[in-house]
Design brief:
The structure holds two protein chains of two kinds.
Chain A lengths: L1 H27 L6 H24 L2 E3 L1 H35 L2 H24 L2 H13 L7 H25 L2 H29 L9 E4 L9 H10 L4 E3 H22 L18
Antiparallel strand pairs in A: 2-3
Chain B lengths: L1 H20 E3 L6 E6 L4 E3 L3 E3 L1 E9 L5 E7 L5 E8 L4 E8 L2 E7 L8 E8 L12
Parallel strand pairs in B: 2-5, 4-10
Antiparallel strand pairs in B: 2-3, 5-8, 6-7, 6-9, 9-10
Classes of the chains: A mainly alpha, B alpha+beta.
Organism (chain A): Actinotalea lenta
Subcellular location (chain A): Membrane
Protein name (chain A): Iron uptake transporter permease EfeU
Chain lengths: 282, 133
């Protein structure tokens, strides 16, 4: 049961993390009305994943590995793009919050509202089909003393609970810290998804270098340990990481972190003189 | 109007991708059963005619396992089934051209796994559009 529990936890964590940050962000910026869009995206992603998973498991036709990989790879690239957009969107809002240009803040929020559904949809849907296929397989299994489905479901529930705990914590941070930490959190999540996509392409032979590992720490961090599952679920950290994976991760995370630090920690930069009157939002 | 059409494009693309990738579920005839345990990876057949192969992998161990169909070089992944928890049976459907391959079970999800050779013979059936060799 523990092994199935850890798979459920790992598969659920990333989505829980992104959705938690999105919800916390909307609440902190006074946009509770946009929460409905988050739940809409969530319901669609979960519903479609479970239905597609059931159709492929019990129906007359399954999905070939090649098609599943093409779908997963495409969704991963889209997810990286959308989370990157979300990071930039949030950091812009943070700047406007600081300069108290409420009119421009509202403009930025309005522009982003429409994409909230899409971000949620992709964050949950990216691993949704694989998780659904895993769940249906667990449901089908003839439990031998243990109950695989119970383990899998408890794992997913734990991921949601961890997301909830993170949400409570995020509400207590002051706004500057909130933006800094959630921004950095999203950067490493997106970097992980990118590295994972690169690894998939290397496995398929589209990109070279599957055999050249930058490091192999699977002895110290076994992928089937609870900490291995946590690292994999949040950062997409793989104990056996190829050079190309590591380079892709660094090439994403370093510039994005630099961008965030520049935007969110401009402590000693002299503020340009701005007129006190508010601009009318065009 | 135009933007609405554009928004539907990704969904359409995904749908057509899914339809093109749909293959018949053949659990009874022609499926190769694999049993993965802590120290063994037992296949019901070590060769098969080319085309659509279905592996049905059962995890008889107490660690999560993975199953791979690899190219002759032992690196290129032709197909992979992940997240096979203890007690679970999962299916890998993959379109394969004739040639030499390697199968691997990875109990514990790390290392090279328990490997064996696998041969795909010519059957006159094309492996399908997505199975770029």
């Amino acid at each position: 049961m523990l092994a199935n529990y850890l798979i459920g936890l790992r598969e659920g964590l990333e989505a829980a993390l992104v959705v938690t940050i999105l919800v916390a962000y909307l609440v902190r910026t006074g946009r509770r009305s946009a929460l409905r869009q988050v739940w809409t995206g969530l319901a669609i992603a979960v519903g479609v994943s479970l239905a597609a998973g059931a159709a492929l498991t019990f129906g007359p036709r399954g999905l070939s590995f090649q098609a599943q990989e093409a779908l997963g790879g495409t969704l991963s690239i889209l997810a990286v793009g959308l989370v990157t957009w979300m990071i930039i969107w949030m950091s812009r809002t943070a700047r406007f919050l600081k300069s108290e240009l409420q009119g421009r803040l509202d403009g930025a929020l309005a522009a982003g509202g429409a994409a909230v559904v899409l971000v949620t949809l992709l964050a949950v849907g990216r691993e949704g089909l694989e998780t659904a296929l895993f769940l249906w397989a667990a449901a089908q299994s003839t439990g031998s003393g243990t109950d695989p489905l119970l383990g899998a479901a408890l794992g997913l529930a734990t991921a949601v609970a961890l997301g909830w705990a993170l949400y409570r914590g995020a509400l207590k941070l002051n706004l500057a810290k909130f933006f800094a930490w959630t921004g950095l959190g999203l950067v490493v999540v997106a970097g992980g998804v990118l590295a994972y996509g690169v690894h998939d392409l290397q496995e398929a032979g589209v990109l070279p270098g599957i055999g050249s590992l930058a490091f192999d720490v699977s002895a110290a961090i076994p992928p089937d340990s609870w900490y291995g599952a946590l690292l994999r679920g949040t950062l997409n950290f793989t104990a056996e990481t190829t050079w190309l994976q590591a380079i892709a991760w660094l090439a994403y995370v370093l510039p994005m972190t630099w961008l965030l630090v520049r935007r969110l920690w401009p402590r000693q930069a002299p503020a340009p003189t701005r007129p006190q009157t508010e601009h009318v939002a065009a | 109007m135009r933007t609405r059409h554009l928004r539907a494009l990704p969904a359409l693309a995904a749908a057509s991708l899914l339809l093109a990738g749909c293959v018949a579920n053949t659990p009874d005839d022609g499926s190769i059963s694999v049993t993965s345990s802590a120290d063994a990876c037992t296949l019901s057949a070590t060769s098969a005619p080319s085309g659509t192969l279905t592996f049905s992998i059962t995890n008889a161990g107490d660690q999560a396992t993975e199953f791979y169909l690899l190219g002759a070089d032992g690196h290129k992944v032709i197909g992979e089934a992940e997240n096979i928890g203890p007690g679970l049976t999962r299916t890998l459907v993959v379109q394969v051209d004739p040639g030499d391959y390697v199968t691997a079970c990875k109990p514990g999800m790390s290392g090279d796994g328990i490997r064996a050779d696998f041969t795909v013979t010519g059957s006159g059936t094309a492996a399908g559009p997505t199975a770029a060799s």
